[in-house]
Design a protein that fits this description.
The structure is a homodimer. The first copy, chain A, is α+β, with helices and mostly antiparallel strands. Chain A contains three helices and four strands.
Chain lengths: 108, 108
Amino acid sequence: MEESKREVNHRLLIKFKEGVTEEKIEECIKQFCKTVDLIPSIMDFQWGKGMGIVNLNQGFTHIFELTFESAEAVVAYISSPLHSEIASLLEPLMEKFVVIDFQPQKLY
Amino acid sequence: MEESKREVNHRLLIKFKEGVTEEKIEECIKQFCKTVDLIPSIMDFQWGKGMGIVNLNQGFTHIFELTFESAEAVVAYISSPLHSEIASLLEPLMEKFVVIDFQPQKLY
């Protein structure tokens, strides 16, 4: 199988700006869930709020985990109007964020 | 079900220091895989190397994804000698890292 045709995990970690309300964050997450639902190349989605079990989150409080069917599907998503919409909603609210895409491995 | 008894996803993102060789990183990942194999409360494990599809990784190049059976299991892991060993191996090699623990949600 071509490498690019393997599933790709897309992870987004967010630190929201101080003062962003829980209601606003809830609105963003709901919009994110709706967006993901509209994209057939997203095979799996989950999100979560950091529990702070270990104090090493560097301020990141939320994570969004998307699984795409291929690297091309990630590129198509990033370039889509749906992504622009959710990005425009999130951008003014984030203090910082990280995105990492990878093909999951079980062993080395 | 008590919240603390639900599965907990544990994510570790790493930016290795400049100059850390691919061989050294490979050694760390292999050790990580071995460690995870020894901990029965880890229900799932995968890792990956950032593909740089979008240039927003803030320098983070590797991710390790562990699923624990409960929050208590994460605490037990963090306090274990096995974790100390892998942490001692990794710490001098990392420029920065993030850990986030969360109970995965599919919807808001």
